[in-house]
Amino acid sequence: MANHKSSIKRIRQTIVKTERNRFYRTRLKNIVKDVRSAIEAGNKEEATTTFKVANQQIHKFVSKGVLKKETAARKISRLHKAVNAI
Predict the structure, then answer these.
(1) Which domains, and CATH codes, for the chain?
(2) pLDDT band at 3; cut points 50, 70, 90
């Protein structure tokens, strides 16, 4: 167990940040899964609408610091390529 006030505070902060990041990462996985399922179903309209939502959410996650900019760009690029391939 930590002995200093600062280290006790850091532990508390880490717990809060870990929970928040877990929520965002799970949300990201579900968003990408929705787009992929629409692509596999061959539904172009649903795929484009879910892609727009995914694009906005992924950029929001970058601004919150959950994802790096390059990772987000790669994910968006691959999803966009898959949607256009329908």
Answers:
(1) 5-84 (1.20.58.110)
(2) confident
